[in-house]
Amino acid sequence: MVDAQTRRDRFEEIAPALIEPLRRFLARRTDPATADDVLSETLLVCWRRLEELPAEPLPWAYGVARNCLANAERGVRRQERVAAKVAVLDRPAESTAGPGQGDDLLSDAMAALRPDDAELLRLWAWEQLTPAEIAAVLDITPNAASIRLHRAREKLRAELRKTGQPAGHEGSRERREP
Amino acid sequence: MSDHDAGWDDDPELRDRLRAADPASSLPPADPTRVTRLLEDTMNSATEDDVLTTESRETGTHDRSPLTWLVAAAAVVLIAGVALFGFLNRDSGNDKAPAAGGSPTVTELGAPGPAAYQARCMVPTAETLSRQGVAFDGTVSDIAGGLVTLKATHFYAGDPTELVKVEAPDVDMRALIQAVKFEDGKRYLVSATDGEVSICGLSAPWSQRLAGLYAQAFTS
Hints:
The complex is a heterodimer. By secondary structure, chain A is mostly helical. Chain A has two domains: about 1-95, Rna Polymerase Sigma Factor, Chain: A (Orthogonal Bundle), CATH 1.10.1740; about 100-180, Arc Repressor Mutant, subunit A (Orthogonal Bundle). Chain A is about 70% helix and about 0% strand. The radius of gyration of chain A is 18 Å and the shape is globular. The relative contact order of chain A is 0.10. Among the domains of chain B are: about 65-90; about 105-220, CATH 2.40.50.120. Chain B has helices at about 10-20, 30-45, 50-60, 65-90, 115-120, 125-130, 170-180, 210-220, and strands at about 105-110, 135-145, 145-155, 165, 185-195, 195, 205. In chain B, strand 3 and strand 4 form a beta hairpin. Chain B is built from eight helices and seven strands, in the order H-H-H-H-E-H-H-E-E-E-H-E-E-E-H. In chain B, strands 1, 2, 3, 4, 5, 6 and 7 form a seven-stranded mixed sheet that branches. At the A-B interface, helix 1, helix 2, helix 5, helix 7 and helix 8 of A face helix 1, helix 2 and helix 3 of B.
């Protein structure tokens, strides 16, 4: 079974570079325990489908993580609908923000967007992906990713303008009632 | 990059503002030991059987002729026969203690203390393995409380016995069971130094790769 050894070597060559970005990807989107579970699951899928990994594996791996996370969250929703609802509406993204803590205006504006648009913006700004890479994550064409990203940015700017604060300025102290 | 990527830097101000709110910016990097273990766990939890099953469903088996299966079945029978022959032969040799009546022979091992799990793991090599006092191939026949019993089929190092009992306080045993992934009925390659089962990939579910390392370590 020379193959088994080759597979392991290939995985050991590729996977370490995926772990850190995947950890961050998940930390941005779910609680630490779920993030750990989904990370293991994502790696397992990468290992099992090693032969399908594209030359640029990270966006593909983000796509896998996204699906695994969606599955995990569906499972949670089945078990405890109320808790899951809270987790989805009030993502740790907003509650544990680091240096950007206090940009309520931005969090509110993001929350007001359609989930798909908000996710596009997160992939763009947090994962720092190009439209072509975003396309690989979401399994859409690069052209569609480019157009949707453009629109999502416009919507976010519009949301931010609604409260009279141009993008890039410190958020107002006003808080939307939960 | 294609011209689709031109849009990436359209609004650096907005992107920077979003980035400032990145909840992962305060996430410390993963502990390298954990990363190594995570990779090892990933590759081990999908054993070769799993890989074969997944692959055969998606790629391999559609166009295999019945003859292939016949040959495969014949090979299995042949391998089983050889294994049985070897097993019986070994029984009569000195590789295995005679089982004539009485209770089976037992090697007793312990689990490492908590400190062992803090240490950094190196990738297992034949050289590290060759320094192990006990090394064997066996199948878990029982897991209960602080005791894991394995039926040994082959000893690479140490005095051969029929059974190996790993006994440890509950806490240590739980950690060991997690590290080695002991499960009832599964086959393992286990090694030990100073009477304690070695972790860090030196003891693990049976795999072609690890069996190769064991063979390499203990035949030279």
